[in-house]
Amino acid sequence: MIRVICNQETFVYNAYHMVKAFYPSETVASSVDEKASNYVTVEFAEDGTDGQKEAMIEIADRQTNDMPAEKSAMKKYLDRMLYKKLSEQSGRTLAWGILMGVRPTKIAMRKLEEGMTQETFVPWFQKENLVSEEKAHLAWQIAGREKKLLDQLDYENGYSLYVGIPFCPTVCSYCSFSSGALGDWEHRVEDYLAALMKELEAIAKMSEGRKADTIYMGGGTPTTLNADQLDRLLTCIDRHFVREGLLEFTVEAGRPDSITKEKLQVLRNHGINRISINPQSMQQKTLDTIGRKHTVEQVYEAFHMARKLGFDNINMDIIAGLPGETPEDMEDTLRQIALLGPDNLTVHSLAIKRAAKMGQEEREGKRLTIIQDEIGTMVEMAGNKARQMGLFPYYLYRQKNIAGNFENVGYAKVDKAGIYNILIMEEKQSIIAAGAGASTKIVLKEPVINPESKKKKKTSLIRQENVKAIDAYISRVDEMIERCTVWVHGQHRKRQTDQLRIYCTYCR
Asked: What is the pLDDT of residue 202?
């Protein structure tokens, strides 16, 4: 058991996640004690010792003379001090240093846009955030590739569309997405599609005069829909959204056991130019363990079927750190992936979320044995193999509770990078989302008071999330539609209701 005690709420997030990154298998609890003499205190105790402290880390007494006065500088100062002491205590380092956020490349992008050179950025990034030289170079490379792709977009008049399908053949043990097994929801699929198409029609009407740059259909697994259902949904999108100038239309075919020739032909007929076929692992023992009810052979069959039908931009996902896997297993998975030759390869580091079955089992004492050095080896192996395949890193993000404090990286051929993936990370263009659990991100020209901020802080990014429960979404779709967004008309004003909400003048 590890306890993290901070004397201010603002220090808790980074302190907790940094301790968790150094000690991922330990139970970590955090609290605020405004009377505490130290800014941050970390207490180490064994379970069952009635709180007896075995070790303690104390960070900066209130009387510390060299403590910066400015809040952001103070937080960084404390983060560095805590990192160094945790590193000494554990004998480990973290590849991303004190960076606990999910988008480290945003820092590189900002410095690139400010005119900083790689020669200046790398040592600055290392010193400022205690990251490794390898990760500093990776962040810079990705920022450069992202910028070249994003420069072709019209942020002001363009947008991207996300369409969510919350069904899967089965629910994987590591997954916490708002999706349900198709067998449990088959009787509501038609109702869900009717609600989804109603929301899409409303979005299309409100977006008249604006151009969709990318469309992404994810989930869940969109190909759990049958061929007729897929056809009707895509016909709805074709009818209501202007496809002229559309740079990318991705469908997460995802699970090989949901893919048929008939469904793939429907996607081709509607001009889908990018799909995913995601094995996560090419080890049958692993697929069985994590609840993916398909075989390695089905991965090959689905991939070859897609190639024969003319799909020339196929992504594949794999995960480093799945239960029971070794670097040797990862090496074999990569060997098999290379034989297929996908145009994109996304390498995830395992992240255990509370809502996932695997996370629940961990809390019940069935702990996962995660060897961080092995995960690091797997991630490195995947990056090397991707480059050998002619794939180069083009986007990166991190997640909470990610094993080994590593990252997820997308690799792609020069002309096959997923633009939507970059947009969702860099948050430079509005992404309008439809479906259960879908999250809309509205990028504003000018900052406004964040409706969710207790301290009335300003923001240039407004998030609006649809309800996650499938039944609730179906019954409340009119409410989802009513929550019109500021991006539609470019003018807005605040109104106080039960909660502070943002409304456009058109909707008033």
From this structure: 93
Is residue 128 classed exposed, middle or buried when 0-12, 13-18 and 19+ CB atoms within 10 A define those classes? Answer: middle
Residues paired with 504 in a beta bridge: 492
Percent of the chain exceeding pLDDT 90 equals 61
Distance in angstroms (rounded) separating the CA atoms of residues 420 and 246: 12
pLDDT at 477 over 80: yes
Cβ neighbour number for residue 213 with a 10 Å cutoff:
23
Range of lowest pLDDT (24-28, 237-241, 356-360) = 356-360
pLDDT band at 355 (very low <50, low <70, confident <90, very high): very low
Per-residue confidence band for 406, with pLDDT thresholds at 50, 70 and 90: confident
DSSP collapsed to 3 states, 79-90: HHHHHHHHHHHH
* In the predicted structure, residue 505 carries a pLDDT above the cut 50: no
In 3-state terms, what secondary structure has residue 23?
A: coil
Taken in order 223, 227, 233, 234, is the CA torsion positive or negative?
positive
pTM summary value: 0.87
Of 90, 67, 91, which is closest to residue 80 (Cα–Cα)? 67
* Pairwise CA distance, residues 30 & 224, whole Å: 41
Secondary structure class of 211 (helix, strand, coil): strand
> Which of 60-69, 228-237, 363-372 has the least mean pLDDT?
363-372
Dihedral sign, CA of 167, 310, 315, 304?
positive
Longest dimension (CA), the chain: 70
* DSSP notation for 60-129: EETT-TT--SSHHHHHHHHHHHHHHHHHHHHT---TTTT--SS-THHHHHHHHHTT--HHHHHHHHHHHH
Minimal CA–CA distance to 477: which of 119, 200, 179, 108? 200
Helices (H), 207-283: 227-240, 261-269
d(Cα 472, Cα 475) in Å, to the nearest integer? Answer: 5
Across the chain, mean pLDDT equals 86
Q: Which tokens is 347 given?
A: 């390498």
The alpha carbon dihedral of 65, 85, 98, 100 has a sign of negative
Instruction: Name the residue type at position 83.
Output: Y
Give the pairing type, strands 439-449 and 180-181. Answer: unpaired
Strands 458-465, 439-449: parallel, antiparallel or unpaired by DSSP? Answer: antiparallel
Distance CA 58, CA 89 (A): 12
CB atoms within 10 A of CB 323: 16
Give the mean model confidence (pLDDT) for residues 121-142.
96
